Amino acid sequence: MVMAPQSYLSAITENIWRLQYLAGIGLLTVSSPLHFGPHSRVGDDTDLDQSAASEIPWAWHNVIGDIHVWTAGAHAKYGEIVRLGPDTLSFINEQAWKDIYMHRQDANGKAMKQLAKNHKKRHENGVYSLLDAPDDVHSRQRKMLSHAFSDRALREQEPLLRSYTDLVVRNLTDDARCNRPVDIVETFNFLTFDVIGELAFGESFHACETREEHPWFALFFTTIKWTSIFSVGKKIPFAPLILIPAAPLILKSAKDMFAYTKEKVRNRIATGDKERPDFMARVLKHNTNDGTGITIPEIESTFELLAVAGSETTATLMSGLMWLALNNPPVLSKLQQEIRSAFASDSEITLIKIDHLTYLQATLQESLRMYPPVPVTLTRVTGPEGISICGEWIPGNTAVGVPHRAASLSPTNFHEPMTFAPERFFPEGKRPAKYDNDKRGATQPFSAGPRNCLGKNLAYAEMKLTISRLIYNFDFEVVNPKVNWYEQKVWGLYDKKPLMIRVRERKPSN
């Protein structure tokens, strides 16, 4: 039986006062990691080898779910480079994406080693997944998996994508005719989980059909949240002791989630079907046994990752876009005009045609900026020899990274950063002049470099097809516009609240 997240919370309630007490001591001792004069930020006079602060404030904000707000506040006060802990530096300069995440060359043009991922670990089945693999293993795995995300694969997947958006349109039509408010967050979750079930496991979760949450969803959301909370144990030795009451429950959730994934993957492999338009068919068709391919255990661990990355983040972005558009009528009106004037009927909406909708593309980019599905930092660690980042020399073994949301919403990077303005992503000469100096490279919602999101094209296709069909067929409004849905807790990913909307069928004019 899957235990609700509230049960996990109650399991540590009796010990939370200890965490508060210890956090209080840390805060009284160091005030915060940002109040250390020259050691709070990087500068010419900064000795980065000296310890600058306690890890407790970082851990505390991670546990209570406002790490994204705290980090953004630090940058607003101290600038583009901020020390968040004794060995942790945060950057929001667009150059940091290149210096930290992308391929680099030394002064002689020789390729430099990539910065390492922090806390590399093997999956519970004893192998690396694509997420945590060392560079050589990651390169081998990604090369094999890339076949599943090629342009040809995407074209073959279009009928599957359309069949599930058909179900969403049907469900929303029923809601409209019954005058029934709908939680659009749940709707998008059902859609993206069903699609990724088909693509990763060869079998849908049937959530769109039943309009009920599959047990795997609860396992997923619980595991993601508590994995983020338990991550404080990597830097705070006493934290695991405080969280011990919840540990068995979290471990069981993670094991159950992987057991389900493993069963589905093995069942799909057993079919031997190399023609089905899903990920596994491409892997089976191109895989080798000479050491350059991908092993069955690696497929199991990585397909669990693909199921996570290919579902929740896409649903998150579409939910954010709906909230932002419905609360900005001029943007919504332009989006409706572009989509509804481009097609004579719903059946004309195809991946090829929607790729030419420039305002839709800009709206997606602006939504990704204002509401990045992964709002936190994807950490890397500098090598023992140290490295230059944004013109500053950073010593070895320092955790570095760009916090997505803080960088994307910083006024140092974007004019009027809290204004939802798709026009800022128009080509030069077509966008309003006031956005010409925006540092668009500061927002990288799919990350950057050799470890960027493998499924970027699939995500864009799914989002464009879904949003186009919904905007074409329906009118929407938020049930309670006074509720600020945008401000949410974050534990690795957003802890999204329901977004209730009213749906009305649109009757296309002849």
UniProtKB/TrEMBL annotation:
Pfam families given in the database record: p450
Co-factor requirement: heme
Checking PANTHER family in the record gives: CYTOCHROME P450, CYTOCHROME P450 MONOOXYGENASE ASQL-RELATED
For molecular function, the Gene Ontology terms on record are:
heme binding; iron ion binding; monooxygenase activity; oxidoreductase activity, acting on paired donors, with incorporation or reduction of molecular oxygen
Record-linked InterPro entries: Cyt_P450 (IPR001128), Cyt_P450_CS (IPR017972), Cyt_P450_E_grp-I (IPR002401), Cyt_P450_sf (IPR036396), Cytochrome_P450_monoxygenase (IPR050121)
Print the keywords alphabetically.
Heme, Iron, Metal-binding, Monooxygenase, Oxidoreductase
Question: Under which name does UniProt file this protein?
Answer: Cytochrome P450 monooxygenase
The family line of this record is: Belongs to the cytochrome P450 family.
Tell me what organism the protein belongs to: Venturia effusa
> Can you tell me which residues bind heme?
C453
